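Input chain follows. Return structure tokens only.
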Amino acid sequence: MASKLEQLKRMTDVVADTGDIEAIRRYQPVDATTNPSLLLKAAQMPQYQHLVDAAIGAGKGDPAAACDHLSVLIGKEILNLVPGRVSTEVDARLSFDTAASIDKAKRLIGLYEAEGIDRSRILIKVASTWEGIRAAERLEKDGINCNLTLLFSFAQATACADAGVTLISPFVGRIYDWYKLREPQQTYTKDTDPGVLSVRRIYDYYKQHHYSTIVMGASFRNTDQIEGLAGCDRLTISPQLLEELSAAEGELERVLSPQTVNAAEEKVHYEEAPFRFALNADAMGTEKLAEGIRNFVHDQVQLEGLMAVRS
């Protein structure tokens, strides 16, 4: 019998959640995603020092510019291995600035195009703040496709769909972390895990209302969470969990399908004030969004510091 990873690939587009080019070569995903944390790890690996040096040279003494070039150079290497797209993230410090997020996204696309990479192979990652969603809405109209990240709440998901974004990345594992921290004795299965249930709800809502936005579950803590979302449009998975799925045997049941939507919810539309109120009412969503932005900013600053020292 085929491994669970092979079975998963038959029903879901598998995406590698890593900046490690060797891991991408090994597991042959359709797409790959990166973020400041993954780039910081990659920048400290010996096999990528030639890319770090090239990015520093292109940055001409500006550590932030060097980080942009590194994002693109690693993205270009990844695109030599995957048939689909790579996601490249806008600086999280711009999460509450629509205009600056748009400018940064266009700069990244420009750098890719200067490397001979067509924008159709890039997804620009933007945090799912109100400002980030508005930036993505504008970028989509300009032909720049977006991946809305740090998504934890249903309000964020509905606003992203209304904005016509290409893809969302709801964070399964971080939702699980929040609940587990508060109820450490609670044991979750793939059918009771709050992160899994959140993505199932979003998936069913999108299919019920015929949104074209792709649902890509992200940030997994174990393979049970992945199996609980088998059939989701896409799943972005770390190399460690890809390895576990590759070694796992047994039948993998399809859980999600456009033909078997399990819920019926009325369509929701948010203007700015109701969106902010709905997100604020979701303690988990509010806290994890803020924490995620802080952590990405921390790693971005660390990466810039590494570039500055090497310059």
